[in-house]
Amino acid sequence: MKLGRVGAAFAALFMSATPLLAEGNLASQPERLPDMEIDSAELTLSVNQFELETGKYYRWRIVHDGGEEFQIVAPDLFRNSWVSQVVIEDLEVKPLGLHSVEFDDEGTIDIWFVPIRPGDFDFWIEGYENRGLAGTFVVR
């Protein structure tokens, strides 16, 4: 008799839950984030906080002036996102995973991704995070 009540309770729980389903292609028509420009002379970022939503497709453009080599590290963001592609000077990379991107010279890198888990995810430029070259992705 107890199994019947437990089974009925589980059935009622699952029947009352509304499934969340995505309709259409999540990886189409990305929302373009503001370009993040790195000024190596002033050691500043033009944007250091981004507000995102889970399940939305984004394009993050990083522009570097070429003053010196910089590695942008965002392991928690990338671990909690589906990364569609990385475009470096019109060359596409389709990664299985991503930890960071690095500039050896001036240029532009676009990262196309869908955050799949909410949270606050820090990013930084390796070795310069305590000098202001850091920020956060706030994903809700």
Could you please describe the fold and organization of this structure?
- This is Copper-binding protein.
- This protein is mostly beta strands and 140 residues long.
- The protein has one domain: Immunoglobulin-like, CATH 2.60.40.420.
- The protein is built from 2 helices and 12 strands; from the N terminus they run H-E-E-E-E-E-E-H-E-E-E-E-E-E.
- Strands 1, 2, 3, 5, 7, 8 and 10 form a 7-stranded mixed sheet that branches. The chain has a 5-stranded mixed sheet with strand order 4-12-11-6-9.
- The longest helix has 15 residues, at 2-16.
- The radius of gyration is 20 Å and the shape is globular.
- It starts with a helix and ends with a strand.
Short description:
This is Copper-binding protein. Keywords: Signal. With 140 residues, the protein is mainly β.
Specify the number of helices: 2
Pairing-aware structural class of the strands and helices?
Answer: mainly beta
Tally the structural domains: 1
The name CATH uses for the topology is Immunoglobulin-like
Task: Outline the fold blueprint.
Layout: H1 2-16, E1 31-32, E2 36-39, E3 44-45, E4 49-52, E5 58-64, E6 70-73, H2 75-79, E7 81-88, E8 91-93, E9 100-103, E10 107-115, E11 119-125, E12 134-139
Parallel strand pairs: 1-5, 2-5, 4-12
Antiparallel strand pairs: 2-3, 5-10, 6-9, 6-11, 7-8, 7-10, 11-12
List keywords for this structure.
single chain, 140 residues, mainly beta, Immunoglobulin-like, seven-stranded mixed sheet, five-stranded mixed sheet, globular
